[in-house]
Amino acid sequence: MNEKHMNPAMITGNGQPRSGFVGSRLHNFGLTMVVMGASFVLYYLGLFGTVDGPLTPANMGAALSGLGVTQRHVIMVLLSVLVFALCWNWVFNLTSALVGARMTCKADGKGGDATCGAPVKRTRRHSKRSGQTVVAYVCPHGHRRSEAHFHPVKKGAFSNTVWIACVAFVLITVFYIR
Known about the structure:
Elements: H1 20-44, H2 57-66, H3 71-99, E1 103-104, E2 121-126, E3 133-138, E4 144-145, E5 149-150, H4 157-175
């Protein structure tokens, strides 16, 4: 479709044209077909246990056992994934705060009732009076402040699902596999 002749109401906030009802239904149908195709492949490889194949639980267990993998190894891997799934955003937020990333200006905006909100850069300089290093945050609008607002990354639904699944797998491995 030629962009010159598009109605502005048909364009989303990121500049992409809206797909409409038919486009969204086709998109969802395509995704459904991809998932169904992947499920058929996994079924015929034996992942679900009804067809004999390389991914049948008994065959996977025999292959892992042949490599020397024990129940303790599986528990340690699952616990490592669990710890990573629980703590990745804490580590990311801590390093972002230490580096000075994900920060915005806290200066009053033009209207006086809002803040500037522009991304800031952290600058350090040595104060001759006190002999200490002074940290200042400078935004592109020229505001220089001693503090800035930090925007932490929060876990979403996918991340919470991963760590809950890891807890379930660890509990299954520890208590039910003997």
